[in-house]
Amino acid sequence: MPIRALIPRVFFIIALYASSFPLLYAAPGDPIEVEADQLDIDQKAGTAVYTGDVRIRQGNLLIEGARVEILRNTDGELSRAIALGDRAYIRNRFEGQETITEGQAKRITYHVAERRVELINRAELSQGGDQFSGGQLEYFIDKGVIQARSDVDGSNNQRIRMILQPEQQ
Question: Which of 3, 36, 68, 84 could serve as a FRET partner for 118 with CA atoms 20 to 30 Å apart?
Answer without folding.
Answer: 36
